[in-house]
Amino acid sequence: MAGVAEGLSVHLGAPLWAVRAFFVVTAGMLGAGVLLYLWCWAFMPWAGGEASPTRRAPVAWLLTVASTALVLTFVPLYLDPWAWNIWGGYSAPDAVAAMLLLVTTVAFAMTAGMWAALVDRADPARGIRHALLVRAAVMSLLAVLLVLESSRLASGGGVTQLVRTAIPLVALVAVSSTTLIERWRDLSGERVKRIREEQRAEMAAHLHDSVLQTLALIQNRAGASSEAARLARAQERELRAWLYDGDAPADSDLPTDLRDYAGALELDFPVRIDVVSAGASDERASGEVAAAAREAILNAARHAGGEISVYLEGTAASVDVYVRDRGPGFDPDAVPADRLGVRESIIGRMRRIGGSATIRPGGGGTGTEVHLRYAPGPGRVSSGQGRHG
């Protein structure tokens, strides 16, 4: 279902199967279960979760097939009202049976239409096209019932027949109004998101003028290598990430990954690492470029210390990563042949994916600069995917 039965089960402490059975049984009682379900769905708080990765049962299609079979029973009855001897009010049981048959048919059809529009529409395995097809079929069935009941109302039938005619009409309007319900849900979600963004912006402005400036002052006064500066830098990173970055996806982009990695290194080494990015690329944190960049930053933190600058420049055609430190310098040719850290973890890794890694002295002859460049070929959008292409 749409989460109503599960939510009530958790709230009431009742078994889930019992709650679902209650809705199924009461759905046949003049549609009371359907109305109760829709009321609960409209007013229960939303649990803002992700869409289920598994395919749901085809509830909408099953209800559509059931309502179609019930609608087909009406056609011979109208063609031959004496067939089952339930039309024309021959007895009270016949009238009740006819009304229950109509209500059950309409309830199934209306539930199928609203289920497709409000539940299956958000199912990644189905989507909008499935919802439109089910709603079209359901509205056609309800239109047939409305025409049949209207024809009897035109020939006379009293208040009972007027009620019978109104039942499919109300269901037809309800299914048609699902578009308005979807729009209302979208507007409500946008409104909640906008309110949260405004609150976050107000809090960010306040914290920027107070806490962040205080943390920056502590770092400047204490020096990059002091313990106080490291702790202040770590707190500043966490606070900035919470204020400005929001929730990052599991496989984040390259700049986000390197910022997180730099923050972790600052807790382990007496360094200050600034990560700056420009442009945009499709390079992900799971790629080989990210692994080589992390290794370069780690080497700078381990052997140079002090302040380290990381600059990323991404375009649709390539991505460049520069790692600069202010240490004593580094000569790759002087590294013994049995030391494979830089040679394999950085240079070899970039060469294997078709990129390049250049290590040279920093500006003014102090420090070291590592330049990583990767330009994926056609059909290779990420170094993590390019290895398998």
Automatic annotation (TrEMBL):
Transmembrane segments: 17-39, 59-79, 99-119, 131-150
The UniProt record lists the keyword ATP-binding: yes
Key words, A-Z: ATP-binding, Kinase, Membrane, Nucleotide-binding, Transferase, Transmembrane, Transmembrane helix, Two-component regulatory system
Cross-referenced InterPro entries: HATPase_C_sf (IPR036890), HATPase_dom (IPR003594), Phageshock_PspC_N (IPR007168), Sensor_HK_TwoCompSys (IPR050482)
Domain Phage shock protein PspC N-terminal per the UniProt entry, residue ranges: 2-45
Domain of life: Bacteria
Protein name in the entry: ATP-binding protein
Lineage of producing organism: Bacteria, Bacillati, Actinomycetota, Actinomycetes, Micrococcales
